[in-house]
Amino acid sequence: MTAFNRLGATDLARMIREGKTTPSAVMAAHLDRIAAREAVVGAFIHLDADRAMERARAADYKPATGPLHGVPFVIKDIIDTDDMPTSWGSEIFVDRWPTENASCVQSLLDAGAIPVGKTVTTEFAFFRPGKTANPWNLSHTPGGSSSGSAAAVADYMAPLAFGSQTAASLIRPAAYCGVCAFKPTTGAFDLSGVMTLAPSLDTLGVLARDPQDLVLAHALLTGTILPAPQDFSDILRCVSLMRGPHWQHGTIEMRDVCRRAMRALSESGAETGEAAHPPVFAELTEAHKIVMGYETARSRADVYHSHRAAISDQFAQLIEDGKRVTEARYQAALATRDRAIAMIDEMFADCDALLVPSAPGEAPEGLGATGDPLFSRMWSLLQLPCVALPLGVGPRGLPLGIQLIGRKGDDRKLLSIAGWVHAMLQSA
């Protein structure tokens, strides 16, 4: 039998419900993996193995009433928990112990899931990395800022993890670590208890190895009914490749992965094509930087003024640059965003999802930086739902992947398409 820590959350929950295993056996498999690998991967900033096992053993004797009964999950260290510290990736707040769980954490607890620990994030979910290494090659970055969450899922320490994205903090680490990630339509998931960076961009999300786990998490976090597979049987699966304004900034291998994915989907019966990007899309990356800097400078001004000597130069520079952005320049960036949003419906007129690169290429070597967020900035600014799917490896043996983009608000449809695309690519 496959080790329990190699299975996804949906499969583990089903096995527990059917009496084929127990929460404590599932937790033991994950804790054994953590014990064997955490010293080199460094996915956790706070780990309470005894508490996790205590909860799992208690779950052994409870009826499996929740859809994630007995299933482990991990939590990015910008998300509040009432029984573990939440330090926002900063030594300044290392002793910060919230009194309440974030809404998303409580939703999974109510579903029967068991938290294992808090995962490493970059400082204030920006660019200064923590200790985490890429499980595929420990000398390479796992990406950021959901570094520990992506590494924990990729290294079979947990089947499901919370992350977040303001620029590329879900999609990029998923791509670098070879796992799936879902960034919903901005505002779809409740951010109560989640650290704020740039309010119009901040989005809670999830990482997993199996797309069906993203579907389950979406249902739990939105309070909707988990769809049965047949509910989506009539969805037109038309996927268009969008090269975008930064296509040539991706490696040859990344561009080839996108082309191979399109060929495989076409051969599997999908309707495929290419979507042109409007000229305004070339302005979105810079607009994103302006919006992110402006909003961060105001939401985190307290940290800058009270702890300037204790924050990194990278984060201080973001605040200082953001303070120099005038209101007029900020509003102009939002107007650029809105002009692009007005053209989205036309882009989706003949397709259900856009296929684009998830990152420039393989994870860069070194742990001093987290890689380039170039291929996600525009989608974060446009507030569209995105799914990262792994596909193959590059010349260094590190993961590559694709990103699917959906229409705003069509999160369930995008997740259904992503599950189908993943299945087609795995069998191609």
From TrEMBL:
Domain Amidase: 26-415
Signal peptide from the UniProt entry: none
Pfam families: Amidase
Domain of life: Bacteria
Protein name: Amidase
